[in-house]
Amino acid sequence: IDADGARRLLRIFFDEHLxxxxxxxxxxxxxxxxxxxxxxxxxxxxxxxAVEPYLFYFLRVIGTTISYRAGGIDAVVAADVTMxxxxxTVDKHLVTPNSEVALLDASLDVLAYTVPDRTILRWDNERxxxxxxxxxxxxxxxxxxxxxxxxxxxxxxxxDGREWTGVVRTLNVSGVKGRDLTLVMISPRDELLxxxxxxxxxxxxxTLGIIALAIPLVSLVAAFISRAMKKLAGEAELISxxxxxxSIALRSRIREVDELARSMDLMKGTISRFLALIRSLAAxxxxxxxxxxxxxxTLNVSGxxxxxxxxxxxxxxTFSPGSLFSRERGRLESSLVSEVTMxxxxxxVRACAAGEIHxxxxxxxxxxxxxxxxxFHAEELQISILPLKDRKDEVIGLLCLLNRVGRPETEAATxxxxxxxxxxxxxxxxVSLESRQLLEMQKRLMDSFMHLLAGxxxxxxAYTGGHCQRVPVLTRMLARAACEDTERYRDFQLDTxxxxxxxxxxxxxxxxxxxxxxxxxxxxxxxxxIYDRIHEIxxxxxxxxxxxxxxxxxxxAGGADPEALRSDLDKELxxxxxxxxxxxxxxxxxxxxxxxxxxxxxRIGARTWQRSLDDRIGISREEAxxxxxxxxxxxxxxxxxxxxxxxxxxERGDNDRLDPDNPWxxxxxxxxxxxxxxxxxxxxxxRGTLTAEERYKxxxxxxxxxxxxxxxxxxxHLRQVPELAGGHHETMDGRGYPRxxxxxxxxxxxxxxxxxxIFEALTATDRPYKKAKTLSEALKIMSFMKKDNHIDPDLFExxxxxxxxxxxxxxxxxxxxxxxVDIARYLDQA
Length: 830
Fold this sequence. Notes:
By secondary structure, this protein is an alpha+beta fold. Helix 14 packs antiparallel against helix 15 (about 560-590). It starts with 7 loop residues before the first strand and ends with a helix.
């Protein structure tokens, strides 16, 4: 407002960056912004506000004014926005040609549309009437209707056969009827996805073109690669079948294929070498040989100058050198290296404590290896020490790789790579050594137990002392002679396992004797049991002699002539003495007892004596039960001088009976009673001192031997031990025991043991019940046994021809027994 009260309007124009681009000279106007609705509305609020669309005063176009009251200066800042501007903004959001975009106010009147002129239907001065959706001339917007616009969110519908998609959004704008505006955007789905579909088609065409061009090229490259891959696949299949023969010589220009071929070749060689080592070690049975093999194989695969192995001894807490190999000189004596105790502070002990590979460099100042340096022509050695650990992770030994100090660099570069293989191999070697050690310990335990049992049997009876120890020796001598006779026994050869079976069977061939009562084995007189019952009979004769003297003195006391009676008394006493002497001679036994001797024995036994003491008191329960078989007699009782009473018969229990259909095939004539201790029955024995029952009991030792041995869990190569040990009492003609086998049914080694058993028994000097035979006597008896088809005639000839009999005699017989023998007479009979 000027001084004269006139209103002037200054127009200043700015570009889009609010830089002034021009001015107009002030002009007189009647326009008063303070009277405008937007001014009043801005003064009434602290926020940005907008008024309803109206006809602008100066521009004479429809629009709305946005105003804001500036704080602190009491001024209002306003901006006019025409409906055309809003429509142009909306038009920019058209994504397809037929898309529809409309901006609606809270009353759903159209504020902006892609065709701006359609948004205003009429205006009068400053009053404006806006169009509705149905007034825009768009069929799809008319179809959409107002109900679909009540809730914001996505739209999807079908109109005029086309799928439409879109969205309804609510916009909050201050000052417009609730300050809510609605933006409607819809598009035909086919137009919306047209570019994407076209892009897919173009991409498909391009892809087909590339494939058409690439197929020939790929086929050529694939054929080139596939040849190599097929060969590698074939090698992989061979490896999967554990076929490691040959190397992989494939080379390819493709780096990855070439590296794969080299890796597979290295893997194939490594696995092949490792499996070869495993097979080699697994096949080795001897512990010392296995230790040397481990040492030698380690030398080969490691490329070291030498390899040394130590074994740990738990008893002495020492590391003892086990095997030593040099690349230049081969196997060396392990004594070149001294033993090391765990208490000593040495490199070996430190390596054991570390539990891992330990590298040390030693010179002549290290006493354990001083002498070894001379054999390697070196002043210093580089030693890589690998502990050998068992399954319990305990050190059982050490593997030492020896190298001269100053190896070539190329070889040193591969040294670390080889150590990885050696570590793996050392683990398997340790387990192999442990397993073999356990087997060796088990064998030694079995061998010791076997010697213990044989020694106990020999110690049990002085009559068989040393028998169980000498029979295996003689059997082994004869078996060795058969192996050396490549003409007659070309098909007979014993390997390590075969010798082990013969050794074990020989030592255990009489183990069943532990079940035989000692008094039966050692029975040297006919009446002997726990003690010799001849003493009882002697007492009875003493009683008869006292009775004769008592009768003599009673008659004298009755008045008879002593001189006349003395001759009768002396005669009776001489007869009693003579009869007892005869009974005593019968008790000793012999080769033959004449029938007239048996008759006299029975006449002597028929004499009686009188017993006045009860014989059923102070005895064992078993004997008391046997006494109960007959009623107790009235004392005093008259009894026979020699008698076979019912209580002399000891019945056989169930455990002592052998079923004819027994699973072992034993064929023995079993007596009815376990023992018969009848006095006359024993004294009438025709040969020797044993009754039929006692002889059966002694023969039963071989039955018990077989039963005992067949209960043991043998490894496969020892399963014939019961047959070998249990066949030395069989005969060639099938009349032996316990199975009645013929020579053809017996293993050759069992027939050898039969000869060894007989020869040892005939020549043994530690049997008190008989005199040891001389060499000539023993061979003469055995020649008769050969004629009787008792022993193998061919083996008896080998026994003589090979000189085994003489070799054994010189070592085990008394020199007086080794007399001159003309073996030709026995060979001619063979």
